Amino acid sequence: MDKHNIKNYDELLKKSRDIEWFWGEVSKEVVEWYKPYKKVLEWTPPWVKWFVGAKYNIVHDALDKHANSWRKNKVAYIFEGEPGDRRKLTYGELNIEVNKLANALKTLGVKKGDRVGIYMPMIPELPIAMLACAKIGAIHTVVFSGFSAIAFRERVNDCKVKVVITCDGFYRRNKIVPLKSMVEDALQDAPSVENVVVYKRTGGDIPWTPKRDHWWHELTQAQSSKCDTEMLDANDILYILYTSGTTGKPKGVIHAHGGYAVGTALTLKWVFDLKDEDIWWCAADIGWVTGHSYTVYGPLILGTTSVIYEGAPNYPGPDRWWEIVEKYRVTVLYTSPTSVRLFMRHGEAWPKKHDLSSLRLLGSVGEPINPEAWMWYYKNIGKERCQIMDTWWQTETGTFCISPLPLTPLKPGSATKPLPGFTAEVYNEEGKPISNAGGNLVMLTPWPGMFRGLYKDPKRYEDIYWSRFPNTYLAGDVARKDSDGFFWIQGRSDDVLNVSGHRIGNSEVESALVSNSKVAEAAVIGKPHEVKGESLTAFVVLKKGVEPSDELRAELREHVGKEIGKIARPDEIWFVSDVPKTRSGKIMRRVIKAKAVGEPIGDISTLANPEAVDEIGRAR
Ligand code: PRX
Q1: Which is deepest, 58, 184, 473, 576, by most CB within 10 Å?
Q2: What is the position in ligand 1's atom list of the atom closest to the CA of 476?
């Protein structure tokens, strides 16, 4: 047990019952405040403040403290580009890059509290851009580079971004994705954006708007490599990250400097037991919360060496990841069940070609890991030596909440138990804890990495997460707690789908379809899918006079790709004359889904148009 970061688990668990005292105590292990806090926790449900009164900036712990220590020459990021180019950046080098960009942002007038939109692929300049914003107290909002120009614009306009940071393009399956062209489209209608900083990744011609656009290398060239880190309040906003909800409008989840720093660093230290000699690879894209918390902030605070890989997992061959693990001697790999299932489909011969003996621990996130994928991962990647940490958490929670530790027992398929300092429960509809039956996954007490609200929408924050049960966080997941207290997450309880570990709202895709001039109405459901977990199926009612055709199907798929991004393109589109609705006009997705996958449809007496159900059945 001595080899683990957590020395005395039972004692830690006991101490953690007093959450305020506990988080104050353990925070000392990972953060250094500029000025100490007066109070650990201020909880006026549903509003929370952690480390009240402390002066702080997350960049101090993520960068400044390492750049002034022996870790200055330790590698922070190992980067592998899809074409095979490689770079290593030490903490000292990373610090210089961040300082230069931070100074450059200041010359563009970026100040504390301003929003900076970052639309970048998996290259080291993405964390550099995030850290440069945080350093000067600006709020970053990173948009996943797989999202479309329209989706980017929607987010930019929602939080009134002042400066955009992007790159000319990036590599994906040996093609160049023209990101700057997409930015150009997006900014056709984004009046708040004053300047655009463009990093040159691929070279080649790109659209350019003089005065507004600046090359990263030109802008930073003359800047000083020193820049003071802004002394903020520990509860100042660090970032906004948009995530899908049950309406067509994404939610801007807010995280703050102090609590998030404590939460990300400690949960990572506990669950993956990171030590200075580890090579950590969180393979998620930084555009999602997993990358924010566990490629950028958590590992940097711990002074870890992390891998960043730019490209597709199976390019040029299905062993690209295993080649990377072998080459850099990765010790801990953290990925999603959907990626495991993708590799599983390619077969075990691919990982066998490589020496994976450096691995000591594996991780999983994004959806429940099914037994086949668990076994395959355990046998073929971990060689039956590495345990699998199945971590449950969300964009809103900011950090792992329910997860095993390398020293606690596992039950494959279960995220096991709440971590020390977290109090998860399963509630029935009356708000009573239940065991051995599906119910609402809730959190009874606040935790440091939790979100601080939805950007400019306090009411939506209160309604969605805090109105169902008093003073209790509703996660929106269905879970079961077994007799041993292990949690089994069963999926979303709301109208949100989980496609390849990514949250997509049914209504988001429906809105995208309906925005096509040929579509009158659309209903979108998820069907079980071997690799993606869920695949999108759309039932579309066309406008009068429009003829259904395969060409139109392809056109609508592309249309959704343009509106949201490729991940949201439906796998199947069926043309129907009507979709089942209640008398008040609400689309009955539950009935559509049951009919489409061949399950009992239950009570349909409230339907205004029961005949529409038969048509769905015929479309199966
Ligand atoms: O349904 C749960 C599922 O992913 C949702 C959160 O999605 P997002 O905010 O995009 O963050 C994903 C990465 C943290 C949850 O509500 N989920 C996440 N982890 C697990 C999971 N479902 C089961 N097991 C998990 N380990």
Answers
A1: 58
A2: 16
pLDDT digits (tens, 9 = 90+) for 472-495: 999 999 999 999 999 999 988 888
Query: What single letter denotes the amino acid at residue 530?
Result: E
Cα distance between the two ends of the chain: 54
Residue owning the nearest CA to atom 6 of ligand 1: 394
pLDDT in tens, 510-559: 999 999 999 999 999 999 999 999 999 999 999 999 999 999 999 999 99
Query: Cα of 282 to ligand 1 centre, how many Å?
Result: 15
| CA distance to 30, 268, 304, 605, per residue, from 75 (Å) | 19, 18, 8, 63
Considering its fold, how many domains does the chain have in total? 3
Query: Both 453 and 472 in a single domain?
Result: yes
Distance (angstroms) between ligand 1 centre and the Cα of 220 equals 38
Distance 263 CA to ligand 1 centre (A): 17
Ligand 1, atom nearest to 496 Cα? 1
Answer yes or no: are the C-beta atoms of 94 and 128 closer than 8 Å: yes
* Residues of the chain by 3-state class (helix, strand, coil), percent to 5: 30, 25, 40
- The beta-strand segments (E) located in 127-273 are 139-142, 163-167, 170-172, 175-177, 195-199, 213-215, 232-233, 237-243, 251-256
In a domain, 197, yes or no: yes
> Are residue 464 and residue 545 in the same domain, yes or no?
no
- The answer to whether position 11 is within a domain reads no
- In eight-state DSSP terms, residue 269 is H
Q: Choose the residue to mutate in 393, 395, 532 for probing ligand 1, maximizing ligand atoms within 8 Å of C-beta.
A: 393
Question: Separation of 83 CA from ligand 1 center, angstroms?
Answer: 31
Q: Name all residues whose Cβ lies below 6 A of ligand 1.
A: 243, 289-290, 365-368, 390-395, 415, 475-477, 489, 492, 498, 503
- 3-state SS assignment for residue 193: coil
| CATH number, position 589 | 3.30.300.30
Query: Is residue 27 in a domain?
Result: no
Instruction: Supply the pLDDT for residue 444.
Output: 98
What distance in angstroms lies between residue 148's CA and the mean position of ligand 1's atoms? Answer: 23
Distance CA 610, CA 326 (A): 58
The CA-CA-CA angle for residues 18, 20, 26, to 5°, reads: 95
Q: Is the pTM of this model over 0.90?
A: yes
For residues 437-458, b (16+ Cβ closer than 10 Å) or e, as one string?
ebbbbbbbbbbbbbbbbbbebe
* pLDDT exceeds 80 at position 619: no
* 566 and 613 within one domain: yes
**Cα 92 to the chain's mean position, in Å?**
27
Q: What is the mean pLDDT of the chain?
A: 96
| Residue 288 is assigned to a structural domain of this protein | no
User: From CA 461, how far away is CA 540, in angstroms rounded?
Assistant: 32
pLDDT for 350 equals: 98
Unique residue bearing structure tokens 């392809």: 554
Among 113-122, 398-407, 497-506, the range scoring the smallest mean pLDDT is 497-506
Q: What is the mean pLDDT of residues 316-336?
A: 98
Q: State which residues form the domain around 596.
A: 496-619
